[in-house]
Specification:
This is Acyl dehydratase. The chain has 165 residues and is of the alpha+beta class. It has 3 helices and 6 strands. Strands 1, 2, 3, 4, 5 and 6 form a 6-stranded antiparallel sheet that branches.
């Protein structure tokens, strides 16, 4: 291939960036979106409890006799972080500035082999006086593969705004 086939020009920073999340002006109260689905694996559970230190018997011992349920339960924190990963990668990548507040309720157990997804609803948008930012509140409802709600939480985040110019 000749050297003429390669560009030596600098990156054009005016081009749209792939994968960039929403600025707050792109959102409206009542707007709803859903995430992709993800099946939770034994490897997910082992990696999560290893990195967090959540070495509770119900998570590390298969068939733990003191458990309250059948199957391999996963910590609610794992369910939450997988959904937050989807939100980060798609909705707020590069535009989410801070998590300000979080209220969470576990509604049903999640076990290894369950497939989870979430519906996000924007419930409040309050522009700030600084740098065109806004405080955006969303309700996130998490469901398993049977459409049973397993978790609900409200997240209040600081989001970037569209750059003036």
């Amino acid at each position: 291939m000749s050297s003429a086939a390669f560009s030596t020009a600098a990156v054009d920073r005016t081009l749209p960036q792939l994968g960039r999340g929403f600025v707050w002006q792109d959102l409206t109260v009542g707007q709803r979106m859903r995430t992709f689905r993800r099946t939770i694996t034994e490897t997910d559970l082992v990696n999560f409890i290893s990195v967090t230190g959540m070495l509770e018997a119900i998570f590390i011992e298969e068939g733990y006799e003191g458990g309250a349920m059948a199957g391999r339960p996963v910590p609610g924190a794992l369910t939450y972080t997988l959904i937050e990963g989807f939100i980060l990668q798609t909705m707020i990548q590069g535009t989410g500035l801070a998590m300000l507040e979080l209220h969470q309720k576990i509604l049903a157990p999640v076990v290894v082999g369950d497939t989870i997804e979430a519906v996000i609803e924007v419930t409040d948008i309050r522009p700030t006086s600084r740098s065109g930012r806004a405080v955006v509140t969303s309700r996130i409802d998490v469901f398993n593969q049977h459409d049973i709600p397993v978790m609900t939480y409200t997240a209040t985040r600081l989001l970037a705004g569209r750059q003036a110019g």
